[in-house]
Write a structure and sequence with these properties.
Length: 517
């Protein structure tokens, strides 16, 4: 047998840095670190230039990486917004925190890392997208967007009621975050969660950026014209740029002759004031006129949709990067960076045309991976700019607690990343990650599935609702995940070992699917 996994000597990871590091005791800093956690929605690692420089320059995210570290193997547990946020707060997989999909409501009475920070004397705040139902608990201050929120002139929910704001949502969330930092209790360490709406569908940029990228033609991913051979679930999805990206709702073609399947395809436009509409029309009306004149069809239309998608998406990224720069500049001016860890992540990855798709959900690489960058104080730097160990968003809560010198509860399923940040090489770090997606049926028709990923291989099981298929990928030879090797005799040993590792992880994380599948 020429392919063998031969890696499964990993013991279950203990939930504290003391057990996960070489020999260090639990860190008890003399002065607790402040934590600023910035999370965006659906931001692909492909559109951050310190990860991938094909599409856009992001100097402020790059600056964070230069002043700290970037994680090159960072993954999520469940690639969808609400569940990902619940994982962040609890340090537990979806089946343990109860938030398995966007139709459920997060149980705010349960243990979360902000509550534990509060008990230890931290002042806590969350500003921006919540998307967990109900209202936040464990925060001394909160102002959140209702549902997905709006790009233009957004409403916020506060403890006092609804508040209307004029302007662009990314700027407003940053304004509110800086205002909270200005007025916080300066005698307490703090943890601020800055949760942006961007880059969520429908990718509406700041009016100051609407003309950006209009002169760019973007390269196509190698698997843009994927035919999904051997992958039933991939063939049955409804998130293709070709068939499912709406000309009016997604691509801003505002004309009565352009049909849309959405009841309110121009919802962002209708929220604009007169000045915003003028700026919008100056850019998008000529694009609409030319589109109607050209009357595209077939592959020309698909290519046109891809280019429009990329331009609109990147306009939102531009605002994000600029606003991250504003926040970093404020922290620097106030002398806070020397005792503050600034973390950047997205709730999941996103498809930038790979497999011909937009959106997320699948366990394929582009949505499984998430950017993770940490800007570190000088005293925490060890010269290493990249961390290659496999990490997951269940690890964020234990990491924040460990940074604060707080014992990590035994029921948290993630592990602290602090040993990695301190330049240590833990002897028993994980060599695989577990994933489970539940939301079916939904608009994008992605089947339920779970799976395991190692440094080289990936095994996925799509189950229930008329499907029962397995997929196996050798990422070393098939990074685009085009060739399903499940059942291939040459990978018989690998396949068996992956099944064993999958079962081990399901037992370790106590996922009841093991008994039901």
């Amino acid at each position: 047998m020429k392919n063998s996994l031969a890696i499964f000597t990993l013991l279950p990871l203990a939930p504290s840095s003391a057990a996960a590091s070489d020999s260090s005791p639990v860190r008890q800093p003399n002065k607790p670190l402040n934590i600023v956690y910035i999370m965006t929605d659906d931001h692909s690692y492909q559109t951050i230039s310190c990860y991938d420089n094909r599409y856009i320059r992001t100097p402020n995210l790059d600056r964070m990486a230069a002043d700290g570290v970037k994680f090159t193997n960072s993954f999520v547990c469940n690639s969808i917004s609400g569940p990902s946020r619940a994982v962040l707060l609890t340090g537990k997989h979806s089946h343990k925190n109860g938030m398995i999909d966007n139709s459920t409501t997060f149980d705010g009475s349960q243990q979360t890392f902000p509550k534990l920070l509060q008990k230890a004397g931290y002042e806590t705040a969350i500003i921006g997208k919540w998307h967990l139902g109900g209202t936040p608990t464990g925060f001394d201050f909160w102002e959140i967007l209702p549902g997905q929120g709006s790009y233009y002139n957004p409403d916020f929910i506060t403890p006092e009621g609804k508040e209307h704001n004029e302007g662009y949502v990314t700027n407003i969330i940053t304004d509110k975050s800086i205002d909270w930092l200005e007025n916080r209790d300066k005698n307490k360490p703090f943890c601020l969660l800055v949760h942006h709406k961007a880059v969520h569908r429908v990718w509406a940029g700041d009016t100051a950026h609407l003309a950006m990228f209009e002169d760019r033609t973007f390269p196509y991913p190698e698997n843009f014209r994927d035919d999904y051979a051997g992958r039933q679930a991939a063939a049955e999805q409804k998130m293709s740029i070709d068939k499912d990206m709406d000309l009016a709702y997604d691509l801003k073609m505002k004309d009565r002759t352009v049909k849309s399947r959405f009841r309110s395809p121009y919802v962002e436009y209708y929220r604009m004031n007169a000045e915003q509409k003028k700026a919008w029309d100056a850019v998008y009306q000529p694009i609409t006129d030319k589109f109607l004149e050209d009357s595209l069809s077939g592959q020309e239309l698909v290519d046109w949709k891809y280019q429009r998608y990329m331009r609109d998406y990147l306009k939102c990224v531009q605002s994000l990067d600029e606003n991250i720069g504003r926040l970093l500049d404020y922290l620097e001016r106030e002398g806070l960076l020397e005792n503050t860890v600034v973390v950047y992540a997205s709730d999941q990855g996103f498809y930038m045309g790979e497999h011909g798709w937009f959106d997320k959900r699948f366990m394929y690489e582009e949505s499984l991976r998430t950017p993770l960058i940490m800007r570190l104080p000088d005293r925490m730097r060890h010269g290493k700019k990249e961390i290659g160990q496999m990490v997951q968003n269940i690890d964020y809560a234990p990491t924040f607690l460990d940074m604060a010198g707080i014992a990590v509860p035994e029921d948290m399923q993630g592990v602290s990343l602090l040993p990695l940040l301190e330049g240590k090489k833990p002897k028993e770090w994980r060599k695989s990650i577990y994933y489970h997606y539940y939301e079916f049926p939904d608009e994008h028709n992605v089947h339920r599935h779970y799976g395991v990923r190692t440094d080289r291989y990936k095994l996925i099981h799509f189950y229930r609702d008329g499907i029962d298929t397995w997929e196996l990928f050798d990422l070393k030879h098939d990074a685009e995940e085009m060739h399903n090797l499940y059942g291939n005799p040459e990978y018989e040993t690998v396949q068996r070992e992956l099944h064993e590792e999958l079962n081990r992880l399901q037992k370790q994380y106590d996922d009841p699917i093991l008994q039901n599948s």
